[in-house]
Amino acid sequence: MSFRPATAADHVEDVSPGSGALPPRAWYPASDAASLSLNGDWRFRLSPTADAEDDSFAEPGYDAGGWAKVSVPGHWVLQGHGAPVYTNHLYPFPVDPPRVPTENPTGDHLRFFDLPDGWDPADGGTVLRFDGVESCARVWLNGTDIGEFKGSRLPHEFAVGHLLKPAGNVLAVRVHQWSAGSYLEDQDQWWLPGIFRDVTLLHRPAGSVLDFFVHASYDHVTGAGTLRVDSDVAGRVTVPELGIDIATGEPATVPVEAWTAETPRLYDGVLATEGERVPLRIGFRTVELADGLIKVNGRPVLFKGVNRHEWHPERGRALDLETMRADVLLMKRHNINAVRTSHYPPHPAFLDLCDEFGLWVIDECDLETHGFTEQAWRDNPVDDDRWTPALLDRAARMVERDKNHPSVVIWSLGNEAGTGRGLTAMSEWIHGRDASRLVHYEGDIDCRDTDVYSRMYADHAEVERIGQGLDGGTHRRRQLPFILCEYGHAMGNGPGGLADYQQIFESYDRLQGGFIWEWIDHGIKDDRYEYAYGGDFGEELHDGNFVCDGLVFPDRRPSPGLVEYKKVIEPVRIEGDGATVRVTNKQDFADLSALDFEWSYQVGGETVESGSLGVPALAAGESAEVKLPEPPVVTGGGETQWTVRALLAADTGWGPRGHVVAWGQVPVSGRQLPSFAASGGPVVSGDGLIALGPAVFDARSGALRSIGSVPVTGLRLDVWRATTDNDDGAAWQSDIRYGALWRKFGLHRMRHRLDAVEAVGDTLTVRTRVAPAAWEFGLVTVYRWTTDGSRLRLTVSVTPDGDWTVPLPRLGVRFGLSAADRVRWFGGGPGEAYPDTRAASVLGRWQSTVDDLQTPYVRPQENGARADVRWAELGGLRIEGDPEFWFTARRWTTEQLDAAAHRTDLTPGDTVWVNLDHGQHGIGSQSCGPGVLPPYRLLAGPVEFSFVFADVG
Ligand code: GAL
């Protein structure tokens, strides 16, 4: 006898896209036809396998009174049923396509509804639309099986009018977590089953709109726009503002203002058929590949983009409109001009927002088969004809849904799916259906199927070679423009090196910018950890905090990486020499008329005067030298500088008047170093102490005990930092990964050997050698202390000894203060900065609490350094640096920070630990990308630096 489990769910493992659904068509939010949202509470039952329960639940009259409830849209694993799973590219099930595991969590969903008054199901038809269900669903209405589908982040519609009753309708949906479709959805993200986008019933009155395609091009030579709306159901198209009133299929050419991401001009129109009026928002623009460049309206564009996954820390990929809007507004306020919808079409409302506020969009298909890389891409569905219908179905569902958005300028076939005939078929179909946009796919290294040469994480030197056209490649590829569809891996502290990339992008026409990986950390709100990441739900396979690699934290608070990116990609460059500033409009289309400029003048970091600066409304690409006013007369000397800022001149949809879009600082007179004349000297007293001016030391160890009334503990050389995700690097990175090397060489466990304490003349000298167990290299470190009577000066000399083969994480001193809360400083701020993430650091006077100096990375790591600090005050001490220093203060030690896995592992102690660093190693992007560029590496070498301490308490 043979036994095979019930086959009730055979469609689950069928490579076909599904059955029963209507052909894909354009998506639009609302028309005058009635609709009924079926979002809300649904009855829910979870089973461990696809066939544990029969389908009698779909029958009218079934009693689901004992079932749980879930919210739709939503993921059941985020609502207390089962748990999320995070893997980057490994399939969390055996790879045996199209088979899936017997353990296949299956969610039965039930929704009961009545039709609103006045909705006559007999008048025309009714369509039931699912905007997103992961990963496979079978649907019954009033007991009738209406079909099944896969393609999680794509819409599926069913004709249901004939099944509807005025009241007492039962919609039953059985959703399986795993299906053949899962093989096509191996994106680096949480696996989150459920009905996670809207479910809507759409009345389709007789003569209502079916599918339509808005063609709205712009001729940059004549300034004319041409509109033609092709519609399956004939009707009329009106655009009152343009005086357009035409039949569908008929073109009209009129003068228009073009749509661009910088000037997102939309015209309101209506498509009216006999049975329906559909509002249109029309943007006229023309996308083309010309002269080897991506051009819009005749001009090349430079993408300053981000990759956006849909994410909410409590609701996963079930986003509401406000969250989508928050993303768009945050992007616009941070000078971002482009989004790649990695790695699936977003909720359609997001694209409406991109049209409205202005973002270039690469709309990416819901396709990734990355896990096949583990078997050298054998059996990859994209190179297997049996799967091609599913791939074409996905391509069509994306293109048909989103084709009417002016913001969408490029279609992307998917991500990390290798290469194969299926992708070629998708590309051919898309090119045939929509010749008005370009096609992208990063995995197509020879650009056989694509119109853009695209790569991810290529290092600076390679990108420069590509810019110069020296990268070789096929003849076709050499004719194409280049983008980095992913770069600047924003995991934890970083990414570093963005300014260096931008400078390269701006140097070569062929380089049309890039998209930071990625927008948001996918941390899941969690009582145990604040935010959970991979492994926190006991997953058998997982990729840890690799899922937290965004420019914003899970709650959408900007991380320093976003602030840095905003500065690096600012649309106006402001540079100067003291008497004038050179202002350059770095936009591709808009002039500067939307901006006001203002100057301010700082002495010692404090603004003493400010005013407005007249800057001509430069056209895109133009520059002008603008004269600054006469500098204010200041007495007493001190460091002086100009700060010039570009601000929104009026409220816009995305930012208020006065919002700063760009800035520049121009030094005038340089810093005067702290004067200090040693007087007096160390006095050894009988009680084992040494007095030196305001300070007291331990006579045997040379350890500093106090400065005036301020107790100081543990002052000594420090080279360790809690390694960042970028220090640790990704396991597959071939470059040297310093995090591991530093640990191997014991830089986190340096020993401090005392060689001498010498109280001679005006100086107390403490000689040490700082070195790790097991290794012969070390740092000969000499602390020289002097006083001018009231203040204390420390000069630290460090001489490397032995064979140093790695850079240092940091180099400076650290010490503990028993009471410190507020910090004031003159230096870079307000946020953190490191050698290759310091573009956004503004020189000025800043203050903060110690707690607010911390950057709360989801996985704790080195953070919070302030750059270029001249002086800082905290805990009753004033510290002046010669030269400027990196300042860090926190309520835990570096060792505690290093050991923490989640924010909740850090508990403040009584001591505030202060680091004054002469040097910091850069950050780089090696968590998935190039490491720290040579200029930002902190190589061991002989150095000397000093600090003057004063008790100001
Ligand atoms: C890329 C991939 C992304 C993400 C990123 C690393 O290879 O396309 O989805 O995994 O690396 O975070």
TrEMBL record:
InterPro entries: B-gal_small/dom_5 (IPR004199), Bact_Beta-galactosidase (IPR050347), Beta-gal/glucu_dom_sf (IPR036156), Gal_mutarotase_sf_dom (IPR011013), Galactose-bd-like_sf (IPR008979), GH (IPR017853), GH-type_carb-bd (IPR014718), Glyco_hydro_2 (IPR006101)
Recorded GO MF terms: beta-galactosidase activity; carbohydrate binding
Catalytic activity: Hydrolysis of terminal non-reducing beta-D-galactose residues in beta-D-galactosides
Alphabetical UniProt keywords: Glycosidase, Hydrolase
Beta galactosidase small chain/ domain residues: 691-950
Keyword Disulfide bond: no
E.C. no: 3.2.1.23
Listed Pfam families: Bgal_small_N, Glyco_hydro_2_C, Glyco_hydro_2_N, LacZ_4
Protein name stated in the entry: Beta-galactosidase
